[in-house]
Amino acid sequence: MTTRATLRAQVRSELNDGGAVPLWPDERLNQWLAEAVRDYGRSLPREATATLASVADQAAYALPADTLRVVRVEHPQGVVRVVGGDGVDVAGYEVFSAQLVLAPAPHASGESIALRYLARYAEPATDGEALATPAEDDQVLAWYACWRALGWISADEARRQRFERQRGATAAGEAQRYQQLYQAAIDQRRRPVRSFRLAILDC
């Protein structure tokens, strides 16, 4: 289980910031780790489902708080609604102001409105809180935080010089390197998986 504290320690190790007087305060690294989770979630949102209960003649329903984009709505059971359907010829829905709006509105209460949606990841608020992002991508989040940390230190002359003496590289150049590592990892995960069919040939 990766917590904010363990990931922050990973970032410090990556930045070689283990001295008695750290170059980066915890609150700054915490801020960039939260940004990393947010950006990662926008780029690679998690797949989620939810079930809402219908209310007779009520068209609008609050979406889950973590919703980024609705991808499928089924109501009533077995009927997949179409985005922008007119509610007369085609059962439809739209998303507006964090609400799911059905057309036509349900005729009965207590029916299931089944959602499939893309969701954001929760941002850690305390050091002991476990990250919701996939553990295998901890390094990707660390690269983002390193990128932001080195960009920030570039504007602080004393800290920048201290870092560059320790690392023998420019803060700006290292920031660009970490940005490229992060973006390349995101791009790699976005690529669709190619499916193939195994053909068995008679000999």
What is the strand and helix layout of this fold?
Blueprint (H helix, E strand, L loop, with lengths): L3 H11 L11 H18 L2 E8 L6 E3 L4 E8 L5 E4 L8 E5 L2 E5 L8 E8 L18 H16 L3 H11 L3 H20 L13
Helix pairs in contact: 1-2, 1-3, 2-3, 3-5
Describe this structure in words.
- It is a single chain.
- This protein has 203 residues and is α+β, with helices and mostly antiparallel strands.
- β5 (92-96) and β6 (99-103) form a beta hairpin.
- The chain has helices at residues 4-14, 26-43, 138-153, 157-167, 171-190, and strands spanning 46-53, 60-62, 67-74, 80-83, 92-96, 99-103, 112-119.
- It has five helices and seven strands, in the order ααβββββββααα.
- The protein starts with a helix and ends in a 13-residue tail after the last helix.
- The chain folds into two domains: 4-44 and 124-190; 46-119, no CATH class.
- α1 (4-14) crosses α2 (26-43) and α1 (4-14) crosses α3.
- It has a seven-stranded mixed sheet with strand order 1-7-3-4-5-6-2, with no helix packed on it.
Instruction: Name the overall outline.
Output: elongated
What's the story with the biggest beta sheet? 7 strands, mixed
Alpha plus pi helix count:
5
Number of strands: 7
Briefly note the structural class of the backbone. Answer: alpha+beta
Number of domains: 2
Q: In summary, what is this structure?
A:
With 203 residues, the chain is an alpha+beta fold.
Keywords:
203 residues; alpha+beta; 2 domains; 7-stranded mixed sheet; 5 helices; elongated
